[in-house]
Design a protein that fits this description.
Blueprint lengths: L9 H8 L24 E7 L3 H13 L3 E8 L8 H6 L6 E5 L10 H4 L7 E7 L1 H13 L7 E5 L13 E5 L5 E4 L5 H7 L18 E5 L2 E2 L7 H6 L2 E2 L5 E2 L3 E4 L2
Parallel strand pairs: 1-2, 1-4, 2-3, 4-5, 6-12
Antiparallel strand pairs: 6-7, 8-10, 8-12, 9-11
This protein binds FE2/S2 (inorganic) cluster (FES).
Length: 253
Amino acid sequence: MLRDANSRGGSRAMHDDIREGDVLEIGVPKNHFPLAHSVQSSSLLFAGGIGVTPILCMAERLSNIGAEFQMHYCSRSPSRTAFVDRIRRSAYSDHVAFHFDDGPEEQRLDLPALLASPNPERHIYVCGPGGFMDFIIESATKNGWPDELIHREYFAAAPKKAANDAPFDVRIASTGKVIHVPAEETVVAALAAAGVRIPTSCEQGVCGTCVTRIIEGEPEHRDTFLTKQERARNDQFTPCCSRAKSATLVLDI
Ligand code: FES
C-alpha cells in the first residue's frame, strides 16, 4: 500500500495509525460507479494503475453473469501491477489484456482500434489517474461514443476555484431560511456554519455523496460526478464544490 505524500488524511492515517491485527469498524459500502449492464450488452473496461480496484469487481461480476466484456489494464510495469496473479488465475483471464509502459510496442493499448465503432449496446468504464481517464474519455467522445455510455470514476479532482468566484444566497426550501455563501466558502461549509448539514465524502465533486436537488436557480457545475445530461438539466448539483450562476439557489432540503 503506497503512502500518498499529498494525502488529505486517509493514506497518512492508514500508515501512521493502523497496525496489523487492529480491528477496524467500517460503514456500508457506497457504490457511485455501478455497472449499467444487462447480459445482452457488452462492456469495455479500462483500468489505469490502482484504478483496477473497481474495474476488477466489474470484470468478476460480468464474468459471473456470462456477459461479454473486455478489460484493458494499463500500468507502468508488471512489478507495479496489482492483482496480476488473481487475474491470470481467474476464469475470465482471456478477457483481460495487460498494457505495460515498459513492455514491447505490440502490447501497448491500441485505443483507436478499440474505440473505432461506437455501439449503443456497449458501455465503457474507466478508472485511473486523471490523465489516463481524460485520454480514454476524450478519445471515446471524439470517436462518437455518447456520454451516457462512458462511465467513470475519478480518484480526485483538480481544484476548480476561480479567481472571480462570486457570493450568492441559498434558500432552504423546507424552512425558507436564506444562507449567504461568501466567495471564498463552499455551499457545504456555509450551510454547516448555519447549522444545515449535507453529508459529504470526497469534497471534490468526485463521489456524488453530497448531490442535492435544486428547485430554483442555476448552478455552476464544478464536479466530475454528474454526466453532461445531468448537468444540463440543472436540477441537481454537488454543493461541496459547485456554485451558482444565479443570485439565489433554492435547495430541496
Ligand atoms: Fe463527493 Fe460532493 S462530497 S461529490
